[in-house]
Automatic annotation (TrEMBL):
Keywords of the record: Membrane, Transmembrane, Transmembrane helix
Swiss-Prot/TrEMBL GO biological process terms: oligopeptide transport; transmembrane transport
Family indicated by similarity: Belongs to the major facilitator superfamily. Proton-dependent oligopeptide transporter (POT/PTR) (TC 2.A.17) family.
GO MF annotation list: transmembrane transporter activity
UniProt GO cellular component terms: membrane
TM helices/strands, residue ranges: 57-75, 87-107, 113-132, 194-213, 219-240, 329-350, 370-391, 411-432, 452-471, 483-504, 529-552
Protein name according to UniProt: Major facilitator superfamily (MFS) profile domain-containing protein
Key word Transmembrane helix present: yes
Taxonomic source organism: Triticum aestivum
Main localization (coarse): membrane
Pfam families xref list: PTR2
Localization (cell): Membrane
Membrane protein topology class: Multi-pass membrane protein
C-alpha cells in the first residue's frame, strides 16, 4: 500500500470518527463526549421546543390580559394600568440578563431551566390562591389589599421564573446543534424559525383558549390551567435528559473581557506589530478560535507578547487573540442594541394599547359570540407564524440560490426589514385610531387587523433576527447571556415606552392643567398622535440603524485548529 493510500485511509477513519462523535466541548448526561446519533439535533430540540410552547402559553395568558385585569378587576386608570403593565414587561424581559449570566457562569443551562420553572410554578400558584380563595378575591367594587399584594408578588415571581427560563432554554436548544457539522449548522438556522413557530403557537392558544376561560369561567380557573400546563412541561423537559448535549459552565464569561481591557490599558504605550501573527494565541483545544479583525485596534495591545520576564505573561497582562476578538464582539454589539430599542417600544404597544383599542370596538362574531379583547392579539401571532414558515421554506431557500450564501439574507438585514415594517404598522395604527375617534358608530374590531398583522410580520423578521444575532455573535461561553441581551431589547423598550407615555402626557397636558393624550378612557385620549410620535421616532432611528449595521463586522472563526495568526484560514460564521 502506498503512502498516499495510507494517508487516504487515515483521513477516512478520522472523518468517520468526527461524524460519530460531537467535538464541540459539549458532553452527554454522563459527562462524556456525546455520540452524534444518540444525542442532540432535532431529537433533543423537540423536547425543548415543546416546553417553550407551554411556557409562552402561560406567559401570554397572563400578559395579554394584564391590562384588562388591572382596569376591570383592580379598577386602575388606563394610564396607571399601562405603566404597571409596561413596568412588569420591562422586569420580565430584563431579568434574563441575570438568568443568562447565572446559566453561563455557574448553574449551567439545564439546571437554570429546572430551577426557574419551579419559581414560575410558585408564582402561578400564588395567583390562583389570590383569585380563588374566598376573602382574598375581589367582591363587588372592593379589592382586598392582600389580593393586590398576592397578585403583584405572583406576577413578579413569574418574571423571575421567565428570567431564567427564557435565556437558558433557547440557548440550551441551540447547543443541541454542532456548528462544526455542516448538516447540523443548517438545522440550527431552521431551529430558530421553528422555535418561534412553537412560541407563536403557544401565544395563539394563550390569547384565545386561555382568555376564553378567563372571560367565561373565571380568572382563577384559567390560572389553575396554566399551572397544570407548566407542571406537565417540567415532566416533558426531564424526560429528554438522556438525549441532551450539555455545556459545563466555566465561570464568569465577563472576567476574560475585563482582563483584555486591563491588559490593553497596561500596554497602551506599546506599538502594535505590523504582522498580526506576532500577537499571542493559544491552541483552543475544542474551543473555537476567532480571526483577527481591524476594528477597535487599541484592544489588540492586550495580545502583544513582552519578552522581558515571565511576570509579563500573567492573565491580567497578556490575553489571547481570541479573547481580544471576543471582547470586540461584545463592544460592537452595543450600538446595535441601542439602535433596536425603538423597535422594542413599538412591540410594547401590541399587548397594551392595541388590545385596549380592541376592548372598545365592536367584537361581535355572529349572533352569540363576542371576541374577548385579549384574543385580538392572536392576529399578530398568526401573522408571525405564517411569516416564519414562509421565510424558512420559501424565501430563505430562494435567497440562498440568488446570493450564493449559506444564509441568503444577512441577520442584520433581516432585523432591518422588521424595523421598517414596524414604522408602517405605527402609521397604520394612527390612521385607524383617528378614524375610530371621528366615527359616529362603533367600528368593527377587524379594523385592527392591518396593524396587528404588520406587527406580526415585523416580529417574524426582526425578533427572529435578533435571537439569531445575539446567540451567534456573542462569545460561545456567554450564549445564554446573549439571549438575555435579545430579551433586554424588548424589556428596555417596554420601560422606555412608559417613559415616553409619561413625557408625552406631561407635555400634552401642560403639566396636568388640561386633558392630554391619555385620558381616563380611549374616547378622551389621542392615541393617534402617540402612534404618529412612535412612527417618527422609529423612522429616524431606522436611518441610524442602517449606518451602524453597515459598519458591523461579523464573527469569523478559524478553520484550522492550530494557529499562527498569520496563516490561519478564516470562515465567516454568519454570512454578511
Amino acid at each position: 500500500m502506498t503512502k498516499h493510500h495510507q494517508h487516504l485511509g487515515l483521513s477516512f477513519r478520522h472523518g468517520a470518527e468526527e461524524e460519530r462523535w460531537v467535538d464541540d466541548s459539549s458532553v452527554d448526561h454522563r459527562g462524556r463526549p456525546p455520540l452524534r446519533a444518540a444525542t442532540g439535533s432535532w431529537k433533543a430540540a423537540m423536547f425543548i421546543i415543546l416546553i417553550e410552547f407551554s411556557e409562552r402559553l402561560s406567559y401570554f395568558g397572563i400578559a395579554t390580559s394584564l391590562m384588562i385585569y388591572l382596569t376591570k378587576v383592580l379598577h386602575q386608570d388606563m394610564k396607571v394600568a399601562a405603566e404597571n403593565s409596561n413596568y412588569w414587561m420591562s422586569v420580565t424581559t430584563l431579568m434574563p440578563l441575570l438568568g443568562g449570566f447565572l446559566a453561563d457562569s455557574y448553574l449551567g443551562r439545564f439546571r437554570t431551566v429546572l430551577y426557574s420553572t419551579v419559581v414560575y410554578l410558585l408564582g402561578l400558584v400564588l395567583l390562583a390562591v389570590a383569585q380563588l380563595t374566598p376573602g382574598l378575591r375581589p367582591a363587588g367594587g372592593s379589592v382586598p389589599r392582600i389580593h393586590e399584594t398576592l397578585f403583584f408578588v405572583g406576577i413578579y415571581l413569574v418574571s423571575v421564573g421567565t428570567g431564567g427560563h427564557k435565556p437558558a432554554l433557547e440557548s440550551f436548544g441551540g447547543d443541541q446543534f454542532d456548528d462544526g457539522h455542516t448538516g447540523e449548522r443548517l438545522q440550527k438556522m431552521s431551529y430558530f424559525n421553528w422555535w418561534n413557530c412553537a412560541l407563536c403557537s403557544g401565544v395563539l392558544l394563550g390569547v384565545t383558549v386561555v382568555v376564553y376561560v378567563q372571560e367565561r369561567v373565571g380568572w382563577g380557573a384559567a390560572t389553575v390551567l396554566l399551572a397544570a400546563v407548566m407542571g406537565c412541561s417540567l415532566v416533558v423537559y426531564l424526560a429528554g435528559w438522556r438525549t441532551y448535549r450539555y455545556r459545563v459552565p466555566q465561570g464568569s464569561p465577563l472576567t476574560p473581557m475585563l482582563r483584555v481591557v486591563v491588559a490593553a490599558v497596561r500596554k497602551r504605550r506599546l506599538r502594535l506589530p505590523t504582522d498580526v501573527g506576532e500577537l499571542h494565541e493559544e491552541d483552543g483545544g475544542k474551543k473555537r478560535l476567532l480571526c483577527h479583525t481591524d476594528q477597535l485596534r487599541c484592544l489588540d495591545k492586550a495580545a502583544i507578547v513582552e519578552h522581558d520576564g515571565e511576570g509579563r505573561r500573567g492573565a491580567w497582562r497578556l490575553a489571547t487573540l481570541t479573547q481580544v476578538e471576543e471582547t470586540k464582539l461584545v463592544v460592537s454589539m452595543v450600538p446595535i442594541w441601542v439602535a433596536t430599542l425603538p423597535f422594542g417600544i413599538t412591540t410594547a404597544q401590541v399587548s397594551t394599547f392595541f388590545v385596549k383599542q380592541g376592548s372598545v370596538m365592536d367584537r361581535r362574531m355572529g349572533a352569540h359570540f363576542v371576541l374577548p379583547p385579549a384574543s385580538i392579539f392572536a392576529l399578530a401571532a398568526v401573522a408571525m407564524i405564517a411569516t416564519v414558515a414562509l421565510y424558512d421554506k420559501v424565501l430563505e431557500p430562494c435567497l440562498r440560490r440568488v446570493t450564493g450564501t449559506e444564509r441568503g439574507l444577512s441577520v442584520l438585514r433581516r432585523i432591518g426589514v422588521g424595523m421598517a415594517l414596524a414604522v408602517v404598522a405605527m402609521a397604520v395604527a394612527a390612521v385607524v385610531e383617528r378614524r375610530r375617534l371621528h366615527s359616529t358608530a362603533t367600528m368593527s374590531v377587524f379594523w385592527l387587523v392591518p396593524q396587528f398583522a404588520l406587527m406580526g410580520v415585523a416580529d417574524g423578521f426582526a425578533l427572529v433576527g435578533l435571537q439569531e444575532y445575539f446567540y451567534d455573535q456573542v462569545p460561545d461561553s456567554m450564549r445564554s447571556l446573549g439571549i438575555g441581551l435579545y430579551l433586554s431589547v424588548i424589556g428596555a423598550g417596554s420601560f422606555l415606552s412608559s417613559l415616553v407615555i409619561a413625557a408625552a402626557d406631561h407635555v400634552s397636558s401642560h403639566g396636568g392643567r388640561r386633558d392630554g393624550w391619555f385620558g381616563k378612557d380611549l374616547s378622551r385620549s389621542r392615541l393617534d398622535l402617540f402612534y404618529w410620535l412612535l412612527a417618527a421616532i422609529s423612522a429616524v432611528n431606522l436611518g441610524f440603524y442602517v449606518l451602524v449595521a453597515a459598519r458591523y463586522s461579523y464573527k469569523q472563526t478559524v478553520k484550522a485548529k492550530r494557529v499562527s495568526a498569520s496563516d490561519v484560514e478564516c470562515a465567516t460564521a454568519v454570512a454578511a
